[in-house]
Each structure stands twice: as C-alpha cells, then as structure tokens.
Amino acid sequence: MLSITRDARGLATLTLDRPDARNALSAELVARLTDALAGLAGDSAVRIVLLTGAGGIFCAGADIGEMRAAGAAPAEQNEADSRRFATLLVRLENQPQPTIAIVNGAAYGGALGLISACDIALAAGSARFALSEVRLGLVPAMISPFVIRAIGARQAHRWFLTGEAMDAATAMRIGLVHEAVDDAALADSVQRVVDALLAGGPRAQSEIKQLLRHVTGRSSAVDESVLYDTSRWIARVRAGAEAREGLSAFLEKRQAKWRDPG
Fold first, then answer.
1. Fewer CB under 10 Å: which end of the chain, C or N?
2. One-letter-per-residue 3-state SS of the chain
3. C-alpha to C-alpha distance for 237 and 139, rounded to whole angstroms
4. Taking 90 as the threshold, does the pLDDT of residue 140 lie above it?
5. Is 60's pLDDT higher than 80?
6. Around Cβ 116, how many Cβ atoms within 10 Å?
C-alpha cells in the first residue's frame, strides 16, 4: 500500500502502491503516509523526501467508495474522516526536508493536493491532471488552499469549476508542476533537481521553508483554522443529495442525473 525506500545519499522515496485502486487515497493509505512523513521529519539522515506512485499512475485521488460511506456517516464521523486527509496535506507541506512530487502518470482530485503540498513537482509528459471533484457533485475543499497557492485564484476558477482534464504542459504553464518532460527523461530530471538540493545546506533549506511561510503571511493558527473549515466544508457537501448521487453514479458506472435529466 505504501512502499518506503531509502538510499545512502539521504533520499527517502514514498511510493503509493494500491495498483488495484489506481493508488487511490484510502483512509489506511492516508494514515500510513502521514505516519511515514512524521517519522522521517525527525531523521537527520534524510535529506529529501520523494513522493510518487506505482504502476505508471501517480494517484487517482480519494477512494470513492470510502467517500460515499463517509457522506452517509454521522456528521462527527464524516468531519473526522475529512480532517485526516487535511492533516496529511499540512504534514506534507510542513515537512522539514525538501519534498519532490514525481508525477509519473494520472493525477486526479486529491492527488493535486499532494502535488501542490510538495515543494517541487516534476511530471512525465504523458501525465494527466484533473480537479475532478465537481463531476462527482463534490468540491475540492481540503486541497484548495494548497492548489490555489500553486496555480493562483484565476486559474483555480476555471479548473475547479469545469473539472476538465489537462495535460502536463498545461499543468506546467499554470504552475501546478515545475517541469514537464518526456517520460523517458523524467528520471534524469529528478536526478538533476536532487543533485541541486543536495548541494544546499539541510538546515538552511529547512529555515527557507519556514521563511517562505512567514513572508507570505502564513501562521499555524490560520492554517489550523483553514484545516477545520475545509474539512467541515467537504463533509457537509458530500453528505448532500447531489454528492451522494455523483458518487453513486461513478461507482455504478453511469451518468449522474444532472447530466441525464430525462
């Protein structure tokens, strides 16, 4: 479900590995990823954290079956489920080591939150991206602060509202990823960025990450408030009739009723 490898240079690679579910973010995978990041945070031997997906897919986003079940659960349980993923995104963004998202394939919904929470994102040219929540009657609530910081509010209006898929070149143009390269060149691109990071002082890099938060007006109190607000937001929306219909339609492989009113 989550593969963790380390090498002598101080690289820790976290690989999402749910091939039967296109590396979708189940509650168990979210918990394992959160725990893994916390464990690596205090390890001075770890210089860089890499995040990628197994099987030529980065991540299909949330586990839709679990999303539907959470929407039908009591409100307190629904919100607690939402907060777990929001907590993961905060943990990833606040990781003291530099983080690199290696987008080796499809990335949808919540996957874009993971990408945006990383310091650097590199993508294979064949990768496809979508903020697909709206097509399910949902909203990209918990990932919105991270994605908007990456692509800006103007771009978010289009991609949040339409749920369109975009190619890697578009993802780079709007700021979601830093580089989009031919698939065969992705490993070389990663190695180039890794070499550049290893040339910097690890303590300075950690300080730089804190500095960036400070000069952009971020605070732990504000971030904590946003975490709870966005968690409650998605919990409320996915408990509604439209989201229940959208999630059921997806799982039943049919069109949602708003697309087929007859």
1. C
2. CEEEEECCCCEEEEEECCHHHCCCECHHHHHHHHHHHHHHHCCCCCCEEEEEECCCCCECCECHHHHHHHHHCCHHHHHHHHHHHHHHHHHHHCCCCCEEEEECCCEECHHHHHHHHCCEEEEECCCEEECHHHHHCCCCCCCHHHHHHHHHHHHHHHHHHHCCEEEHHHHHHCCCCCEEECHHHHHHHHHHHHHHHHCCCHHHHHHHHHHHHHHCCCCHHHHHHHHHHHHHHHHHHHCCHHHHHHHHHHHCCCCCCCCCCC
3. 7
4. yes
5. yes
6. 24
Tell whether the model's pLDDT for residue 178 goes beyond 60.
Answer: yes
Predicted structure pTM score: 0.97
Q: Which domains does the chain have, with CATH numbers?
A: 2-184+198-203 (3.90.226.10)
